[in-house]
Amino acid sequence: MDVKPTERQKKRYTYQDYVKWDGRWELINGVPYNMAPAPSFVHQSIVGELYVALRAFFREKGCTVVMAPFDIRLDEQGDYEQAKHVVQPDICVICDQSQIGSRGCDGPPDLVVEVLSPSTALKDRNEKYMLYEQFGVKEYWIVDPLHRTVEVYGRGEKGYEKRNVFGERDALVSFLFAELSIPLADVFQSNHRE
Fold first, then answer.
1. What is the CATH number of domain 36-187?
2. Burial of 76 by CB count in 10 Å (0-12 exposed, 13-18 middle, 19+ buried)?
3. pLDDT digit string (tens) for 94-124?
């Protein structure tokens, strides 16, 4: 699929269009975003470390931990075949197993993790932040490999109301899962930088 910026602003797409495209894409408000080229070593190392820590924590808790590429379909009317939002977070935790199907997850995961890269940082901090907040993702982690920090946003009655920032010498503590603590020295262990 080749979408020119002027066409992109006019036409809105749905999941039915999305499944026909080659390559990796995301849809936010019906607008297609071509996924960045292959992530860096540092990005993948951080995703791997977080996945291992989350998988170990959730193994006996009835929640599923999934890494990208894995479609999360979000739709205001719950019509996931016509969803105008399809995203592929780096990691997500889904505790309601009925949301998981052969085509991905229908509805918001409980926890979403996005690891920033130069080409995705603005989208992760803006469009995706607002999308996850709108659809009720209970906790959102934004991992910044350059500054070696993790911002944790927790949901309140009016959207994301809590925020903590953890550095590489800290242990990240979840708002949603009080027993979940991850030493970030392990996550940011790579000496390589983006």
1. 3.90.1570.10
2. exposed
3. 999 999 999 899 999 999 999 999 888 999 9
